[in-house]
């Protein structure tokens, strides 16, 4: 048997539940997860869960356990795709397509893979629509604050000014006819951390749908979720019930929503921050000022695609209530939940825009 035949045989055995390999995603039947409501006693309540570590988080695919075995194989293929996309999109891999662009695109226009080019077009459009609150060129700023190395620090004024000189998607020139990108200044770089996970989920949705899988939920970490079809557990449902994380209490939900053919993205800095001289600095930066955004605890967005949900969640967190409300007429299919500190210590206040009040069921103790 050739090495390729052995690999395929091993994969078939794995998909049939005969083996579990460290090189392949874990697969198990689960009655409930932190983000999905389910009843373990209802007919068909069990889920097939597939997991894969990628993009500095855990990606998971959930399938109804009553589906055909080919659905599991499609789920594994979706996670394989996430691994491939990480190699293309990661700012932490020197040989990724994103990093190669940083090293060459200021010298001359560089041809970009079509799907990545489309993603960059979306990011530049979002930069315009949010008046700079969303910006994929914020890499130098992220590094100046130490968040790239996960060692937060307050930058010196000169270092911050140098970083800000390289930030701005207006420094990117996209040529659609030739599918090229040009950086108008040396040192400009791309960081897709605020949109890449969502994009990966959108690609997973495409793969699963093309494979004939009708019902599934995929997520990257706890901040990006996409669902299609319904959770088949014997209870009438309108899609998949997904918990919205509480910005101050990681073990609790602020509420739940139902998703079907939609995605949810959440942005916040409560648990990714550092203290300096008694002041807290969160990792979500406002590219316009170079400072951490401070007006909200979290922003959650429901959108038709996961890339859009992730990007707008970041933008809305940076912009705050007034700018977010002004933005929404451009995105009529988007709903937004903004959470800020309440009047009492430890309490929160919610602001629902774009019809979110008709989507979100608040938890009784979320206020």
Please provide a written account of the structure.
There is one protein chain. This protein is α+β, with helices and mostly antiparallel strands and 367 residues long. It has a domain at 97-183: ApbE-like superfamily (T-fold, Orthogonal Bundle), CATH 1.10.3980.10. It has nine helices and 19 strands. The strands form five sheets. A nine-stranded antiparallel β-sheet has the order 1-2-3-7-8-11-16-17-18. A three-stranded antiparallel β-sheet has the order 4-6-5, covered by helices on one side. A hairpin with a 4-residue loop joins strand 14 and strand 15. It is globular.
| CATH architecture tag of the domain at 97-183 | Orthogonal Bundle
The rough form would be described as globular
Largest sheet: 9 strands, antiparallel
The helix content, as a percent range, equals 25-40%
End-to-end CA span: 62 Å
Helix-strand topology string: HEEEHHEHHHEEHEEEEEEEEEEHHEEE
CATH topology of the domain at 97-183: T-fold
**Mean pLDDT score, rounded?**
87
Radius of gyration: 21 Å
* Neighbour order of strands in the largest sheet: 1-2-3-7-8-11-16-17-18
